[in-house]
Amino acid sequence: MLQTVSLTIKGIVQGVFYRQMTKEIAIQKGITGEVKNLPDRSVHIIATGTEQQLQELIDWCKKGPARAVVSDIAVEKIPLQSFPDFKVTR
Q: What is the Cα–Cα distance from 79 to 82, expressed in whole angstroms?
C-alpha cells in the first residue's frame, strides 16, 4: 500500500550532492516525489512509496552522501500524493 512522507533533513546537506543522490536512491527504490533545498540550508523531501521503500529511503537520508553531515531528520506521514517520477526542484 502506498503512502507519502515529508522529510526535512538538517545539517551540512547543501552543496554536497544530497539532492542528486536522493533522486538516484529514490529512483533505484521505485519511489516517486521531489527533493529541494530550503532557505534555512536544510533539504526537504516529499516521497511516495511502500512502507519498506520509504523506510529504506529514510535510513539512507540519515547518513546521506559521503560529504554530508546530517544533524537531524524530521519524518511526517502526510496525505497520499501522486507523482509521475522523482525530481529535484528549485
A: 10
pTM (predicted TM-score): 0.96
Q: In this predicted model, what pLDDT tens digit does every residue of 38-89 receive, in sequence order?
A: 999 999 999 999 999 999 999 999 999 999 999 999 999 999 999 999 999 9
Residues 24 and 19: their CA atoms lie apart, in Å, by 9
Catalytic residue list contains 19: yes
67 counts as catalytic: no
* Positive or negative: CA dihedral 71, 67, 3, 48: positive
Per-residue 3-state assignment (H helix, E strand, C coil) for 16-70: CCHHHHHHHHHHHHCCEEEEEECCCCCEEEEEEECHHHHHHHHHHHCCCCCCCEE
